[in-house]
Amino acid sequence: MNSQHLQLLVTREMPYGKYKGRLIADLPGDYLNWFARKGFPSGEIGLLLALMQELDHNGLSPLLEPLRKR
User: Fold this and answer.
1) pLDDT at residue number 15
2) pLDDT tens digits for 8-62?
3) 48-to-39, 53, 58 alpha-carbon distances in Å
4) Exposure of 70 by Cβ count < 10 A (0-12 exposed, 13-18 middle, 19+ buried)?
5) Could you report how far apart the first and last alpha carbons of the chain are, in Å?
6) Lower Cβ count inside 10 Å, N or C end of the chain?
7) CA 49: distance to chain centroid?
8) How confident is the model at residue 69 (pLDDT cuts 50, 70, 90)?
9) Is the pLDDT of residue 70 over 70?
10) 3-state secondary structure of 32
C-alpha cells in the first residue's frame, strides 16, 4: 500500500458489475466482503478492492475523508 493507492480509492470508479461507475471508496462492505470470499480480480482493480475491503473491515474508511476533499 502507498499513498497513490489511497488516492485511487477516492478517484477510481468500479469498471464493471453491479456497482459500475461508483467510486471504489463508496462500495458497500458486503460487496467488498463478497470479493474477499470469492477472490479479488487480478491487476490494479483487485489490489484496490482488497485494500478497500481491509480498510472497511477494520473501520478505517474515515481515513479517506481528507483525500476526498483534494
Assistant:
1) 97
2) 999 999 999 999 999 999 999 999 999 999 999 999 999 999 999 999 999 999 9
3) 13, 8, 15
4) exposed
5) 19
6) C
7) 4
8) confident
9) no
10) helix
Structural domain boundaries of the chain? 3-68
For the chain, how many residues are written?
A: 70
Residue with cell 476533499: 69
Q: Is the pTM of this model over 0.85?
A: yes
Provide the grid cell at 54: 481491509
> C-alpha grid cell for residue 62?
474515515
For residue 11, the one-letter residue type is: T
Question: Amino acid letter at 5?
Answer: H
SS (H, E, C) the chain: CCHHHHHHHCCCECCCCCCCCCEHHHCCHHHHHHHHHHCCCCHHHHHHHHHHHHHHHCCCHHHHHHHHCC
